[in-house]
Amino acid sequence: MLYINCPHCGMRSQNEFSYGGDASVKRPELNKEVSNQEWDNFVYNRKSLRGKHLELWQHISGCRQWIKVERDTATHEIFRTFKADEEVA
Amino acid sequence: MQKYSIFNLVKNAFSNHKNWDLAWKDPTPKEEYDVVIIGGGGHGLATAYYLAKEHNITKVAIIEKGWIGGGNVGRNTTIIRSNYMHDENGLFSEFGMDLWRKMSQDLNYNVMFSPRGIINLAHSDAQMNAYARRGNSMRLNGIDAVLLNREEVKKIIPMADFSDNVRFPIFGGLMQPSAGTARHDAVAWGYARQADSMGVDIIQNCEVIGFDVSAGKINGIRTSRGNIKAKKVGLCVAGSTNILAEKLNMTLPIETHLLQACVSEPIKPVLDNVVTFGAGHFYVSQSDKGEMVMGGDLDGYNSYAQRGNLPTLQHVLTEGIAMMPFLSKLKMLRTWGGIMDMSMDGSPIIDKTHIEGLYLNCGWCYGGFKATPASGWTFAHTIAQDRVHELNAGYSLNRFSTGHLIDEKGLGTKTWIS
After folding, report:
1. B364: exposed, middle or buried (C-beta count within 10 Å: 0-12, 13-18, 19+)?
2. Is residue A89 a part of any domain in this protein?
3. pLDDT tens digit string along B11-64?
4. A32 lies in some domain
5. Mean pLDDT along residues B353-377
6. Are B251 and A45 inside 8 Å of each other by CB?
7. SS3 content of chain A, % helix, strand, coil (to 5)
8. CATH code where residue A21 lies
9. Of B188, B182, B199, B184, which Cα lies nearest the Cα of B68?
10. By C-alpha distance, which of B373, B379, B368 is closest to B339?
11. What average pLDDT values come out for chain A (89 residues) when binned by 10 residues?
């Protein structure tokens, strides 16, 4: 069982959360020409890192906020959690 | 190579079975090969076997980080089927069914192929309609499909819950009678033994550290046991695809996720077929040892752990008990997990890449085991001829940018409900 420290609600079990994938993916800027490759990278292509991975989770059975979680994909250790709009250094 | 036969069995009985040849050798890597296959799983072994058998390419090495049979080929739930609606999947898998039927003879190794039939249960009128459509598509592609009503399903699996007050009543099901199971270790060992006998080097405990690429062409690989030159390199590493792709500066439409399976204690024969729950994601069959073999959803988040987490197991088995209540009385014997190369449309990739001489085989999601022979056969063709076969033409890498997705079930990296 993973325990995720929701920045809004505190430590909760993974059962309350839903996974949202890689948080480092950025939607292309729309005020310029966007190439197929850029769309491809945004919609489909993922690094799927082994080790530290910044990812989105939604506290779906809690505050319903999207949050960012820094987790190790090999050990499942969770290092830090952030609010969705927080910049990750 | 020593042939496995009743005569050899008797002969070796006189020496207490102490004089059997090793099934495959343990060679040190040579300096150069025509083809290097990275990944000694089912697909990699099958690829090497068909390279030798169909294309007479025998200067081949299989590079395996762990040991033969230790990855997903030994971790799956052994189900073999071709019950797909889309042409790409149906024709590819049915081609594989033919290879499965001949496999034990072909490999001189009993893979215990058991065409016991698979039943996908339907729990609503809409689902029955969808199954009728899928069944028709299957039959148009020459795949056997039978639409069963509730009474017919009840005759085959009376132990399922047919009572009145259930949340997901069984309306009927779609059956592929020729689907079934096989002994997964035997598949790996059989392919390994035959490939070895035809001159393929199976190199275990050898990790790939990097690639030697120059001017857009692959020249070889760097491994923990030294550099190996190669004219062609095939990537066949399932859940480790992204790790190797990163070394090639490639980003792929693949995420690595964890899939669990489990078996109960062995019980007397109760279930003749493979049965899947239609209102979620759960499947069950009974092994020859009597264990109920069960599986279902992904754990739901990127994982390289090769071991699972309890909430998903609980969720999956809750579905199982809803379908067949007697399962709740069984003790769990083992649970385990494997890491899957989940593609974004739920269908695999067998293709060339932008690097000359580098070929890609990945994205098998929930269905890698049953694809073993067809994947090996088409990947061998793609490598040997340097062009895709019509059977794997749809499994292209660029289908994501061109929009030609093969979204059989709409299942990609995400679980059904999460």
Report:
1. buried
2. no
3. 999 999 999 999 999 999 999 999 999 999 999 999 999 999 999 999 999 999
4. yes
5. 97
6. yes
7. 10, 40, 50
8. 3.30.2270.10
9. B188
10. B368
11. 96 95 93 91 95 97 97 97 92
Amino acid present at B103:
M
- Name the percent of chain B lying above pLDDT 90: 96
In a domain, A76, yes or no: yes
CA neighbours closer than 13 Å in the CB half-sphere of residue B412: 15
Measured torsion, CA atoms of residues B45, B46, B50, B56, in degrees rounded to the nearest 10: 0
DSSP secondary structure letter of residue B328 = G
The residue count of chain A comes to 89
Amino acid at A18: S
CB under 8 Å to A30, separation ≥6 — which residues? none
Q: Which domain holds residue A41?
A: 3-83
> How many CB pairs below 8 A link A and B?
71
Closest CA to B194 of B62, B76, B367, B339: B62
Domain total of chain A: 1
Is the CB of residue B412 less than 8 Å from the CB of residue B80? no
Gap between the Cα atoms of B242 and B257, Å rounded = 11
Please give the residue of chain A at the shortest CA–CA distance from B241.
Answer: A48
Chain A residues lying within 8 Å of B310, measured CB to CB: 1
Residue of A37, A48, A71 best to disrupt the B interface, most CBs of B under 10 A:
A48
Residue A27 falls within a domain, yes or no? yes
